[in-house]
Recover the amino acids of this structure.
């Protein structure tokens, strides 16, 4: 048993610390990858924006080459084109062609340089501070219909043409579709990996639990079987018929051990059965004192065996009633008593009941080994056993308190623990006085 406990504590330690590291490292990696991905998306957006601007400028230059709009020998082309804000471009024109001609050539230039989004064209006349005329070029694959816009006037003392791209941002984002899709795919893959990691780890965790359970199970059943085997050998001895006292003694041992095994099997079955569904609770008004006395009576053989002292300092007039499922609540008390007996060297157990803030409590207090604070929150987990190095010979499955918790949960109650290592433990079951079913 000693090695079993040592193995348990080590594996418990491995479990929680490995899991913590795994989750931490995986989270940091995921955040890092996402940050890098966001950084790249931003970069690609800036790049696409620049490309768009360059292509518009190239188209305008193309237009200058197609038509003699200005005397390009006198001024450098670059000085003729302005970019007053993100969606607008303007360029100087001296000799005026018809608007249709300009729109026709511009459309071709924009197409040639892959500026495939709609554009409003405004013709500005320096003599008249408003736009003389406007036109709209719809790109070949455009999904938009032209909407009326008031082009913003930029004051200049020469004529110019203003290009306003109303869907510039959407167009650039569309160009980035591939990047968005690949980022989403990467994100999905990362989530998938995290989920797989989680299931893989849980599988391993369950396998460990199963291993522990089989270990405990073997220990729990080995001792009674060994005792029964020895008793059977004694009973098979021919001389036993002449020793009726001895015969009775060994027959009783066999009976007790059989009873013990039967109880254990019954408990396991009950837990396995109740595992699949909620506990079936049939509530009745139950006198708590009677319930406690019955539970103690059930534990009498173990109490005698351990030479334990059990006191129930409850006055008759304190025999309060609680609305509960009698069999289940009794089983909960039996489990607490069994633990109090198991985890105390010279058990002195006090069982009390009473009212507390409108609720009814049942308290089982022992003078046993106690439970360190850090383990207290895990006690009610299935298969959990405190990894203690002090007591090696206490058998159990780590199922008792889990079952107690499920019973109390089904009654909408709570459990409080008061425990000091080396001094003792008190488990307090708190049930609502009026239970709504
Ligand atoms: P087990 O079958 O191991 O007793 P339980 O679920 O009943 O399983 O209890 C879980 C663990 O809680 C035990 O292994 C033991 O370490 C600790 N424990 C429960 N009751 C007591 C108690 N009265 N005193 C000290 N430790 C206790």
């Amino acid at each position: 048993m000693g090695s079993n406990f040592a193995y348990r504590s080590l594996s418990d330690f491995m479990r929680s610390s490995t899991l913590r590291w795994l989750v931490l490292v995986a989270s940091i990696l995921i955040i890092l990858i996402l940050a890098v991905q966001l950084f790249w998306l931003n970069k690609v957006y800036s790049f696409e924006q620049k490309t768009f601007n360059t292509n518009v400028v190239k188209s305008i230059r193309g237009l200058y080459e197609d038509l003699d709009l200005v005397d390009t020998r006198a001024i450098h082309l670059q000085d003729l084109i302005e970019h007053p804000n993100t969606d607008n471009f303007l360029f100087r024109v001296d000799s005026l062609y018809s608007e249709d001609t300009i729109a026709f050539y511009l459309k071709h230039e924009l197409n040639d340089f892959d500026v495939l989004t709609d554009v409003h064209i405004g013709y500005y006349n320096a003599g008249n501070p408003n736009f003389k005329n406007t036109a709209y070029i719809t790109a070949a694959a455009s999904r938009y219909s032209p909407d009326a816009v008031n082009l913003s006037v930029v004051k200049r003392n020469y004529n110019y043409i203003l290009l306003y791209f109303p869907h510039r941002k959407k167009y650039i984002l569309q160009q980035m579709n591939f990047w968005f899709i690949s980022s989403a795919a990467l994100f999905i893959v990362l989530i998938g990996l995290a989920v797989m990691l989680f299931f893989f780890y849980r599988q391993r965790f369950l396998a460990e639990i199963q291993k522990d359970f089989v270990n405990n199970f073997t220990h729990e059943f080995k001792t009674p079987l060994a005792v029964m085997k020895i008793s059977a050998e004694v009973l098979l001895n021919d001389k036993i018929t002449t020793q009726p006292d001895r015969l009775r003694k060994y027959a009783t041992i066999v009976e007790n051990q059989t009873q013990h095994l039967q109880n254990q099997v019954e408990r396991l079955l009950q837990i396995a059965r109740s595992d699949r569904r909620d506990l079936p609770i049939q509530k009745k008004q139950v006198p708590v004192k009677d319930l406690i006395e019955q539970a103690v009576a059930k534990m009498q053989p173990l109490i005698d065996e351990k030479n334990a002292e059990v006191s129930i300092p409850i006055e008759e007039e304190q025999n309060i009633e609680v609305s509960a499922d009698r069999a289940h609540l009794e089983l909960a008390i039996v489990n607490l008593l069994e633990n109090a007996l198991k985890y105390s060297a010279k058990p002195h157990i006090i069982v009390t009941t009473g009212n507390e803030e409108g609720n009814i409590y049942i308290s089982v207090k022992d003078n046993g080994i106690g439970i360190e604070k850090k383990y207290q929150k895990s006690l009610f987990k299935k298969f959990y056993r405190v990894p203690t190095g002090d007591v090696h010979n206490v058998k159990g499955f780590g199922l008792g308190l889990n079952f107690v918790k499920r019973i109390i949960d089904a009654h909408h109650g709570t459990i409080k623990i008061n425990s000091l290592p080396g001094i003792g433990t008190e488990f307090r079951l708190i049930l609502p006085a009026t239970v709504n079913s």
